[in-house]
Amino acid sequence: MRYYIADCHFYHANINHQMDCRGFADVTEMNAYMIEKWNKKVRWNDEVIILGDLSFGTAEESTALLEQLNGHLCLIQGNHDRYGAKKGYGTSRFKWIRPYTELRDNRRKVILCHYPILCYNGQYKLMEDGSPQTYMLYGHVHDTVDQRLIEDFQEKIRSTVRYDRSGHPFHIPCNLINCFCMYSDYTPLTLDEWIECDRQRMEKRKR
């Protein structure tokens, strides 16, 4: 099974108390909760693609953290990820570390980057039944005004009509999903689970 998650920010006290206001008493409580949620879902033979900003801890703290997380770990580098950049930050627990990649997931294409890409590769491609063939998964913006702007921009794109070569009208596809850990209660999710999580969250926003 393959899972995705973004912006856990283990060991990041300011994220807990300021930007995200996660509500934990301290970093120790936050870390323990996130590890528990992760390992409750992920087994050792599963794959987890981390969409950036996994840990804000020291080299020793981050290396010890990696040993506590189940699964085969893959990292899309975020702006806070130091793995391999400084002496002591281990990389042995990662299958790979990349700034960007494109993969296949159950016949669909996934574009993976820490930063949202509004015009992504394969955006217009659809499956035979008309469902999206390509999804862009990202992190970085957390649940901020930037995320609201991305959501508004997606709605603008989706409401825009274009015409194919035969002159038939169609709405432009746009399928970006923010895999922010707080949206899933700090649990890594499959692509299908993130699609449903995003759908439910957007429905609540429109109410």
Structure description:
With 207 residues, this protein is α/β, with parallel strands linked by helices. It has 5 helices and 10 strands; from the N terminus they run βααβαβββββαβββα. It has helices at residues 13-19, 27-41, 59-68, 145-158, 191-206, and strands at residues 2-5, 47-50, 72-76, 94-98, 100-105, 108-113, 134-138, 161-163, 169-171, 176-178. It is globular, with a radius of gyration of 18 Å. The two termini are 34 Å apart. The model has no long low-confidence stretch (mean pLDDT 94).
Features:
single chain; 207 residues; alpha/beta; four-stranded parallel β-sheet; four-stranded mixed β-sheet; 5 helices; 10 strands; 21% strand
Short structural description:
With 207 residues, this protein is α/β, with parallel strands linked by helices.
Number of helices in the DSSP assignment: 5
The total count of strands amounts to: 10
Beta strand %: 15-25%
Taking Cα atoms only, what radius of gyration do you get, to the nearest Å?
A: 18 Å
What fraction, in percent, of the residue positions are helical?
Answer: 25-40%
> Order of strands side by side in the largest beta sheet?
1-2-3-4
Decide which structural class fits the backbone: alpha/beta
**Largest sheet geometry:** 4 strands, parallel
Report, as a whole number of angstroms, the end-to-end distance: 34 Å
Shape: globular
Residue-averaged pLDDT: 94
- Uncertain regions: pLDDT < 50 for 5+ in a row? none
The arrangement of helices and strands along the chain is EHHEHEEEEEHEEEH
Q: Would you spell out the secondary-structure blueprint of this structure?
A:
Elements: E1 2-5, H1 13-19, H2 27-41, E2 47-50, H3 59-68, E3 72-76, E4 94-98, E5 100-105, E6 108-113, E7 134-138, H4 145-158, E8 161-163, E9 169-171, E10 176-178, H5 191-206
